[in-house]
Design goal:
The protein is of the alpha/beta class and 326 residues long. The protein contains 17 helices and nine strands.
Length: 326
């Protein structure tokens, strides 16, 4: 397995179900040339037994991009990891943080925090058959795991299995009684527990996730850990990625309209292959968040993108008032 510099994980965009598909990732890449992007979670069973071409499809422009897998069968995960690495993904990430009922019924996601030895077997099985980094995304605990020792034990097992990069959502997950949405909001954030993990395991690349929405917050976290993972903030207000890119890498801040103009070739190519415009425009609705005319932009796209024949002209019409105001 190849080693990857901790700096490669300085800015990452979280894997988000139903959101971070290939269209979203292409858009995010235009906003941040350096951010590490992640796919939606793909179950190892679906990948090994299903439509590999559709599940693994991505564009060259997305790199660096990681494939996130869900599963708990070491042999099956190893097969899925081989498929992901062969498809060109730069990293294979194992989901040990999703709390949904569907994921629990399949014995993967956050419930695996209770079985660190099994997670270690899964990680080692994947790392033994691919040359790209195998990483883990986890929580600080689940249910009654209130002690730091639980996270410490989990982390020690990951390191022994060969994990060099750990992405930690700084909230505990409640596997019963809270919905996935509530699990992102109700359990309190405990950043200090993640900071402590970095102090005690300095050789481990630690990426912190959970409730991080501003450039100032990112700057503060990077003084304590190796990387920051932005989640819903990057989706609802995607221009924050351009602002972070400028702050962390010195890349000139692009005009929002220019970013959208750069999507045109991609959008027209996708329309030509049969993609419906609504599948792309849903990811760009927040681009002008906070700007005059943003509401009209969103409404114009939302109302028109599902109509037959919707094309780039709809986006041009939605942007026209914004261009005049600029």
């Amino acid at each position: 397995m190849q080693a990857t510099s901790p700096s490669a994980f300085r800015l990452t965009v979280a894997p988000m179900m139903d959101w971070t598909d290939r269209h979203c990732r292409f858009f995010h890449r235009l906003l941040s040339p350096h951010a590490r992007l992640y796919t939606e979670m793909v179950t190892s069973a679906a990948l090994v037994r299903g439509n590999q071409l559709r599940l693994l499809e991505h564009s060259h422009e997305e790199h660096p991009v990681a494939l996130q897998l869900g599963g708990s069968d070491p042999a099956e995960l190893a097969k899925a990891a081989v498929l992901g690495a062969a498809a060109g993904y730069d990293e294979i990430n194992l989901n040990v943080g999703c709390p949904s009922d569907r994921v629990q019924s399949g014995k993967f996601g956050a419930c695996l925090m209770r079985e660190p030895a099994l997670v270690g077997e899964c990680v080692k099985a994947m790392a033994d058959v691919v040359d790209v980094p195998v990483t883990v995304k986890c929580r600080i605990g689940v249910d009654d795991q209130d002690e730091y020792a639980d996270l410490q034990r989990f982390t020690t097992t990951m390191i022994e299995a060969g994990v060099g990069i750990l992405v930690v959502h700084a909230r505990k997950a409640w596997l019963e009684g809270l919905s996935p949405k509530e699990n992102r909001e109700i359990p309190p954030l405990d950043y200090e527990r993640v900071y402590r993990l970095k102090r005690e395991f300095p050789e481990l690349t630690i990426v912190i996730n959970g409730g991080i929405t501003t450039v100032d917050a990112v700057r503060s976290h990077l003084a304590r850990v190796d990387g920051v993972m932005i989640g819903r903030a990057a989706y609802h207000d995607p221009y924050v990625l351009a602002q972070l890119e400028a702050e962390l890498y010195g890349t000139p801040l692009p005009a929002r309209a220019d970013v959208l103009d750069r999507m045109r070739i991609y959008i027209e190519a996708e329309l030509a292959r049969g993609t419906h415009l609504k599948h792309i425009t849903r990811h760009i609705l927040g681009l002008f968040q906070g700007e005059p005319g943003a509401r009209g932009f969103r409404r114009h796209l939302s109302e028109g993108s599902h109509l037959p024949g919707a094309d780039w002209g709809l986006i041009e019409a939605a942007m026209a008032p914004l261009r005049q105001a600029a």
